[in-house]
C-alpha cells in the first residue's frame, strides 16, 4: 500500500551516529515527502553516505529514529523489513553489477530474490526495464565488462526499478561519466520520476545534477542538517559552511 501524501516517505528524527569517540550525526532531522527529488549534499566527512546506509538498514539506528513509509525501521521483524525493502530501489555508486551475470540477469536479480516467477517472466520483465531506461535490447546478453560507463549506469538504474519501487536511492549516479553521459542520465532520472511517480533521494557532488533534477536539497554540516531548500535558496544561504561549500568558481548560482 502506498504511503499517504500526508506521511513522509522518510522521517528522520534526532539521529545520532557515533563510531567510538567520533560523532558523525548529532540531533539530525530530515523529512522527505512523497514525490520529492531530494539531494543530500555537504562536504567530505559530513555523513552523507552514512545517512544513506542508515536509511537502507545497512547500519543499525542506535539513537534517534528513522521511519520509512511510516514504520520505525529499528523495530521491524525480518519479514516486515523485507516488505519495506521491496518498496525501494537502490543504485550504488559503482553500479555494483555482478560481473558473472549478463545484463538481463543483473536487472532481474531483485525479482529472483523477492519473487517466485517463471524464468521466462524474469527475462521479460528485465527486457521491459531495459526499454524503460533506454538500453538497446541487443545488450541483454552482454556482460558488464562489455559495456560503456553510461550503459553500466543505465543497467544499474534498470535493476533499481525492477520491483516497481516507490522510493529510489541514487548514490553518486553520475560519478565517472563524461558530461554528455551525465546529462543523459539526469534526463533519464527526470523521466522516471515523472512517469513512475517516484520519490528520489540522491547523494551527489555533481552540481549540474543538483540543479537539473532536485526540487530540494538537504545540506549536511556540523553533524546535522543545516538547511533544506531548493538549490537557488541554498547556494545563497549565509551560513559559513554552506557559503564555503559553494564558493568554488565552478559553482553555478543560477540554473
Order of helices and strands: EEEHEEHEHHHEHEHEEHH
Helical proportion, percent range:
25-40%
| Overall morphology | globular
Please state the CA-atom Rg, rounded to the nearest Å.
18 Å
Spatial strand arrangement across the major sheet = 6-7-8-3-9-10
Q: Give the N-to-C terminal Cα separation.
A: 36 Å
Mean pLDDT metric: 91
The poorly predicted ranges are none
Structural class call reads: alpha/beta
Q: For the report, how would you describe the main beta sheet? A: 6 strands, mixed
Helix segment count?
Answer: 9
Fraction of residues in β-strands: 15-25%
Counting DSSP E segments of at least 2 residues, the number of strands comes to 10
How would you describe this protein?
By secondary structure, this protein is of the alpha/beta class. Helices cover 35% and strands 23% of the residues. It is built from 9 helices and 10 strands. The protein has helices at residues 48-55, 78-85, 103-114, 119-132, 149-160, 179-196, 207-213, 231-234, 240-245; strands at residues 10-19, 22-32, 37-42, 65-68, 71-72, 88-91, 167-171, 199-203, 216-221, 224-229. The strands form 2 sheets. Strands 6-7-8-3-9-10 form a 6-stranded mixed beta sheet. Strands 2-1-4-5 form a 4-stranded antiparallel beta sheet, with helices on one face. A hairpin with a 2-residue loop joins strand 4 and strand 5 (71-72).
Amino acid at each position: 500500500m502506498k504511503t499517504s501524501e500526508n506521511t513522509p516517505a522518510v522521517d528522520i528524527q534526532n539521529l545520532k551516529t557515533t563510531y567510538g569517540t567520533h560523532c558523525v550525526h548529532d540531533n539530525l532531522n530530515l523529512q522527505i515527502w512523497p514525490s520529492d527529488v531530494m539531494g543530500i549534499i555537504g562536504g567530505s566527512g559530513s555523513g552523507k553516505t552514512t545517512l544513506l546506509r542508515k536509511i537502507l538498514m545497512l547500519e543499525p539506528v542506535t539513537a534517534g529514529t528513522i521511519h520509512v513509509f511510516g514504520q520505525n525501521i529499528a523495530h521491524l521483524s525480518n519479514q516486515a523489513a523485507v516488505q519495506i525493502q521491496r518498496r525501494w530501489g537502490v543504485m550504488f555508486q559503482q553500479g555494483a553489477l555482478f560481473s558473472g551475470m549478463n545484463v538481463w540477469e543483473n536487472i532481474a536479480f531483485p525479482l529472483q530474490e523477492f519473487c517466485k516467477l517463471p524464468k521466462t517472466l524474469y527475462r521479460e520483465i528485465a527486457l521491459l526495464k531495459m526499454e524503460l531506461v533506454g538500453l538497446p535490447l541487443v545488450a541483454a546478453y552482454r556482460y558488464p565488462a562489455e559495456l560503456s560507463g553510461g550503459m553500466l549506469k543505465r543497467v544499474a538504474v534498470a535493476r533499481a526499478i525492477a520491483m516497481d519501487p516507490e522510493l529510489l536511492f541514487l548514490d553518486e549516479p553520475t560519478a565517472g561519466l563524461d558530461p554528455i553521459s551525465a546529462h543523459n542520465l539526469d534526463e533519464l532520472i527526470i523521466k522516471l520520476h515523472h512517469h513512475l511517480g517516484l520519490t528520489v533521494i540522491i547523494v551527489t557532488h555533481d552540481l549540474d545534477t543538483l540543479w537539473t533534477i532536485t526540487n530540494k536539497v538537504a545540506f549536511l554540516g556540523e553533524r546535522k542538517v543545516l538547511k533544506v531548500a531548493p538549490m537557488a535558496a541554498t547556494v545563497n544561504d549565509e551560513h559559513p559552511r554552506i557559503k564555503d561549500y559553494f564558493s568554488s568558481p565552478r559553482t553555478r548560482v543560477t540554473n
